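Subject: design request, 197 residues
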């Protein structure tokens, strides 16, 4: 099973193309309040050329049922990523994968599947405790997020041994502004580290 590399918070077609070309397995589009927030229509238009083997992830936080339905209808994501408790109140069709977010201090999911592990607040570039994350990662399915960048992703992969890694602010030149070179460097560093596992 190869390492899943997710580039999150995309808002521009050029950066989407750069991430796909460099080998990202998932692309995150943020619909929660953030400097990276996009509309469902924009997310769809900048990801319309993404190949089917790359997952298009709707990243939300405590969405209402109406907000989720609008994203589902307009964007048609492959995956919904939101806090684990949010799924209780949402109707998610079987065609859409669920990636629950568990935050530092919470235990991971009881069931198998892909899940995201990050700090208390999303999108702030805060690193989680890697040794605690490594214990949780043993059960499988963990996508490690929070404070990762081209300079530390290799160490994170070697320490935590997650199923995937997720980056947003670590590949930006300024808040909400992605940098094509940093995207390439992050993916290349992650892929190199995966070979050493």
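Subject: RE: design request

Done. Sequence follows.
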């Amino acid at each position: 099973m190869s390492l899943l590399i997710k580039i999150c918070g995309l808002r521009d077609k050029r950066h989407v193309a750069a991430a796909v070309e460099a080998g990202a397995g998932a692309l995150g589009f943020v619909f929660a309040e953030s400097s990276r927030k996009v509309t469902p229509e924009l997310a769809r238009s900048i990801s319309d050329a993404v190949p089917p083997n790359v997952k298009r992830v709707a990243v939300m936080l405590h969405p209402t049922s109406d907000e989720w339905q609008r994203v589902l209808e307009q964007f048609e994501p492959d995956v919904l990523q939101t806090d684990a408790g949010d799924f209780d109140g949402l109707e998610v069709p079987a065609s859409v994968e669920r990636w629950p977010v568990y935050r530092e201090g919470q235990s991971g999911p009881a069931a198998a599947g892909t899940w995201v592990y990050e700090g208390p607040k999303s999108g702030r570039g805060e690193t989680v405790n890697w040794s605690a994350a490594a214990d949780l990662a043993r059960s499988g399915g963990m996508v490690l997020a929070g404070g990762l960048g081209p300079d530390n992703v290799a160490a994170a992969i070697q320490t935590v041994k997650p199923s995937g890694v997720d980056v947003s602010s670590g590949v930006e030149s300024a808040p909400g502004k992605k940098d094509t070179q940093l995207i390439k460097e992050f993916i290349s560093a992650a892929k190199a580290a995966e070979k050493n596992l």
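The two ends are 12 Å apart (CA to CA).
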